[in-house]
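pinned: reference chain
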Amino acid sequence: MSQRKKLLSRLFSFRNRVVIITLGLIIGTTSLIFTNRMAHQLRIKEQNEVAMWSWAMSKMGEVGPDNQLLLFIINANTNIPFIVTTGVLQVVESHLIPDRILKNPSLLRQKLEEMSAANHPLEIKTLVGDTYYLFYDESNLLKSLVYFPYVQLTIILVFAIFGYITFRSSKQDEQNRVWIGLAKETAHQLGTPTSSLMGWVEYLRTQPIDQQAVDEISKDVTRLSKVVDRFSKIGSATLLSEGVINEIVGGSVLYFRTRVPRNVTISYNGLAMAQQRAMVNEALFEWVIENLLKNALDAMAGVGHIDVKLSDDPNWIYIDVKDSGKGIAKGNFKRIFEPGFTTKTRGWGLGLSLSKRIIEDYHNGKIFVLESEIDQGTTIRIALKKLDA
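pinned: its structure tokens
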């Protein structure tokens, strides 16, 4: 019942996050639409105001400092910048335009062009026959409303990205806790029967039976103990120590040689070359080698050859596990290391995912598909930093 409650709690927590993100997007979108509408309405209002000024000034006499209507407009207007010029672009009156622009012909012309691009200049024909032109710009309030939606959108996107990262990391943390708990529970459950099996092996040694068979059983029980130890290490601080890679890999290869199908052969060159040393956790590193050998066996369906090859350069030790199996499509080179990805009818697709985590997170190494061809085989490479590099 407690497990069911935890599952329901995680489910509702997931739904709550989705609801919050959805509501945030709805509120943000609504705000953007509303702000755009306000900006559009304010633009029309300002254009109508300026058109009214133009019409009113055309009903007066000369446009200049003595024009009372113009003075009233200037005093009443606190937001809309404008420049009134003659036909030869000589400034007659202006408002909210810096003196440095008015006194510099090139800057003035540039400013008039900007105003013309924002709003078409209005022609003013007075009662005395003079013609003037009214250039005007958008008010600061209108500009703020025009750009505010983009600021809003940027803020919403930033929050959405942070929300997604937080959600992704919390989901990943939750998955990690589940897998760590599962691994430790598995180790706990296997511990008792493993200890019991060790006792039975000792009992069998006292019986008049084939002791060679007992030795093989003992090897399997010892291997099972190592499996229990590996599961118990997941999620715990991983201690690394100096290890001879030739011997660690060789031990796994020799163990598998006596347990593979008759039509499968395994070759290994590591025991005939100079010792290669690296900092490793032997129990976890052996697990990776076994996972690669098991995957190679599965890929060959009981017939073929596995070549385990050790090589090095001045900085790295390379372990290549090559099989003559069915191969991997190029598009799946990276996907095979994702949790749950498998092409087999059995299994959870965790072996290579765990291997990647052990090599890259715990040993600061690399694991990847070196090469593969359909129906020709696959080579997976492990790279470990040399101890003396």
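why pinned: The CA atoms of residues 341 and 349 lie 5 Å apart. The two ends are 54 Å apart (CA to CA).
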